Amino acid sequence: MGLGGCIILIAVGAILTFATDWDMQGVNLDLVGVIFMIVGLIGVATFSSIARRRRVVVPPTTPVVTEEHQHRDGYTGI
Predict the structure, then answer these.
(1) Fewer CB within 10 A of the terminal residue: the chain, N end or C end?
(2) Where do the DSSP E strands lie in 1-78?
(3) What pTM did the predictor assign?
(4) Digit-coded pLDDT (tens) for 24-70
């Protein structure tokens, strides 16, 4: 589940908790909405921590090559 799925879970949970007044026998929709929001927040936190670890950039290990030019008068220029 990506970041979009987590945001959708939070939105659906908020809608179930705050915007509906349905009564279903045996199901508390307010509790289901809160559970959806908590799961969405945990998903966002997990996704952001994984994405932060992936952003670590290791500098390249290629060697730096310098060229030396020797002039006819014996002067070495870099």
Answers:
(1) C
(2) 69-70, 76-77
(3) 0.64
(4) 899 999 999 999 999 999 999 999 888 777 766 666 677 766 766 66
Return the closest-CA partner of residue 46 out of 9, 78, 1: 1
**Residues in contact with 36: Cβ distance below 8 Å, sequence separation at least 6, in sequence order:** 9, 10, 12, 13, 16
Let me know: does 34 contact 58? Beta carbons within 8 Å: no
Residue 65: phi and psi, rounded to 5, are -105, 125
Tokens of 49: 């921590």
How far apart are the C-alpha atoms of 50 and 9, rounded to whole Å? 19
